[in-house]
Amino acid sequence: MSDDATEQAEQPNPYGSGPRDAGASSPATPRRVRIPHLQAMKEQGRPWAMLTAYDMYAAEIFDEAGIPVLLVGDSAGNNVYGYDTTVPVTLDELVPLVRAVSRAARRALVVADMPFGSYGGSLQQGFDSAVRFMKEGLAHAVKLEGGEPMVPLVRLLTDAGIPVMAHIGFTPQSEHQLGGYRVQGRGDAADRLVEEARALEAAGAFSVVLEMVPAPVAARVTQALTIPTIGIGAGNVTDAQVLVWSDFAGLRAGRTPRFVKKYADLRGTLLDAARTYAAEVETRAFPDPEHSFES
């Protein structure tokens, strides 16, 4: 870690928590969250939050709130494009979303999720897809799912200067192979999960997402690694947590996973607003003189 990064990481709040500003940042609020800041927070035992974002408004709001990492997830398949799973979403569909989030976020580190079919065929395919996210999407890092089979690609990308966030445990892109949404890493599979995480770290990954993993196993992985672990359905023992923003804000209807906590009822708020608007239009209460122009 450079002396400059070390100095910034030692500040009380290395990623900032105040509103966006156009002026120069103080040492405690760097212009951009970098991987050394995340690493420093692990070393200091300070958990941090990550949220998904798919558009400029969500990115601006979460950035202003001080969320240090924004993930443009392949979960856009379910939450933007209306697919039943993440599998159908394509690279071409994600690149514009990544670009929108990257351009809107002033401080957060933006991670682009490599979609199914964009990296599993060959090292060259994975490299080309990651380069598109970095060049066209303006991403700061990419995320990919999978354990030891992904080690060569992680090494190739990091050697080429592309930071990689790994993802093990339950991997949604493999849900058909895994037999649906099932907790991973139980019993004898726990040792395998730890070894996969170590292999990904050795290959150069700067962090590892642990999805739907028993909390004791997530604790083992977190203790075994020097890089941050990011939990989603992995208990509170990881170095960071991530949630899909439409889940945490209560935008989606129906059942949500057990590990999701709703911090707002955005769906209810928008529903009430739309009903009120429709009613006012029907009764000609809107637009009223205040919202009209005079001759």
From TrEMBL:
<dbReference type="GO" id="GO:0000287">
    <property type="term" value="F:magnesium ion binding"/>
</dbReference>
<keyword id="KW-0963">Cytoplasm</keyword>
<feature type="binding site">
    <location>
        <position position="143"/>
    </location>
    <ligand>
        <name>3-methyl-2-oxobutanoate</name>
    </ligand>
</feature>
<feature type="binding site">
    <location>
        <position position="113"/>
    </location>
    <ligand>
        <name>3-methyl-2-oxobutanoate</name>
    </ligand>
</feature>
<dbReference type="InterPro" id="IPR003700">
    <property type="entry name" value="Pantoate_hydroxy_MeTrfase"/>
</dbReference>
<feature type="active site" description="Proton acceptor">
    <location>
        <position position="211"/>
    </location>
</feature>
<dbReference type="GO" id="GO:0003864">
    <property type="term" value="F:3-methyl-2-oxobutanoate hydroxymethyltransferase activity"/>
</dbReference>
<feature type="binding site">
    <location>
        <position position="145"/>
    </location>
    <ligand>
        <name>Mg(2+)</name>
    </ligand>
</feature>
<keyword id="KW-0566">Pantothenate biosynthesis</keyword>
<keyword id="KW-0489">Methyltransferase</keyword>
<dbReference type="GO" id="GO:0005737">
    <property type="term" value="C:cytoplasm"/>
</dbReference>
<keyword id="KW-0479">Metal-binding</keyword>
<comment type="subunit">
    <text>Homodecamer; pentamer of dimers.</text>
</comment>
<protein>
    <recommendedName>
        <fullName>3-methyl-2-oxobutanoate hydroxymethyltransferase</fullName>
        <ecNumber>2.1.2.11</ecNumber>
    </recommendedName>
</protein>
<comment type="pathway">
    <text>Cofactor biosynthesis; (R)-pantothenate biosynthesis; (R)-pantoate from 3-methyl-2-oxobutanoate: step 1/2.</text>
</comment>
<dbReference type="InterPro" id="IPR015813">
    <property type="entry name" value="Pyrv/PenolPyrv_kinase-like_dom"/>
</dbReference>
<dbReference type="GO" id="GO:0015940">
    <property type="term" value="P:pantothenate biosynthetic process"/>
</dbReference>
<dbReference type="InterPro" id="IPR040442">
    <property type="entry name" value="Pyrv_kinase-like_dom_sf"/>
</dbReference>
<keyword id="KW-0808">Transferase</keyword>
<keyword id="KW-0460">Magnesium</keyword>
<dbReference type="Pfam" id="PF02548">
    <property type="entry name" value="Pantoate_transf"/>
</dbReference>
<dbReference type="GO" id="GO:0032259">
    <property type="term" value="P:methylation"/>
</dbReference>
<feature type="binding site">
    <location>
        <position position="74"/>
    </location>
    <ligand>
        <name>Mg(2+)</name>
    </ligand>
</feature>
<feature type="binding site">
    <location>
        <position position="113"/>
    </location>
    <ligand>
        <name>Mg(2+)</name>
    </ligand>
</feature>
<comment type="function">
    <text>Catalyzes the reversible reaction in which hydroxymethyl group from 5,10-methylenetetrahydrofolate is transferred onto alpha-ketoisovalerate to form ketopantoate.</text>
</comment>
<feature type="binding site">
    <location>
        <begin position="74"/>
        <end position="75"/>
    </location>
    <ligand>
        <name>3-methyl-2-oxobutanoate</name>
    </ligand>
</feature>
<feature type="region of interest" description="Disordered">
    <location>
        <begin position="1"/>
        <end position="32"/>
    </location>
</feature>
<dbReference type="GO" id="GO:0008168">
    <property type="term" value="F:methyltransferase activity"/>
</dbReference>
<comment type="similarity">
    <text>Belongs to the PanB family.</text>
</comment>
